[in-house]
Amino acid sequence: MAVNGPEHYLHAQKYATESATDKEPEWMTAHAALAQVHATLALTAAIAEFGDTKSGVGRVASDWTGWRNAGAVLSPTANPSPLE
């Protein structure tokens, strides 16, 4: 199953939340690693869509709500952009 950029973003959020609430260190580490992988893939997908790293990263930051909403409707205050 292919996962697109917004879906990677949502997976990153999910795993980061799970990592923060895990009681066992092994699960905390595993979920944090999965969150990092998905966050990296989401950013890579955004840069690929929006252009090179110079223009892409700035555009990702300004369009982050669009990326978030492409995957699901989430509250901007509950899920702030890591780039803002």
Task: Please specify the SSE layout and strand pairing.
Blueprint: H1 5-21, H2 25-50, H3 53-62, H4 64-71
Description:
The structure is a single chain. This protein has a domain of 45 residues. About 12% of the residues have low confidence. The chain has 4 helices and no strands. It is elongated, with a radius of gyration of 13 Å. It is mainly α. The longest helix has 26 residues.
| Topology pattern, helix = H, strand = E | HHHH
Structural class: mainly alpha
Compute the separation of the termini in Å: 30 Å
Give the integer mean of the pLDDT values.
70
CA radius of gyration: 13 Å
* SS strand fraction: under 5%
Q: What coarse outline follows from CA principal-axis ratios?
A: elongated
Total of DSSP H or I helical runs spanning 4+ residues: 4
Number of strands: 0
Low-confidence stretches: 72-81
The main β sheet shows up as: none
Fraction of helical residues:
over 70%
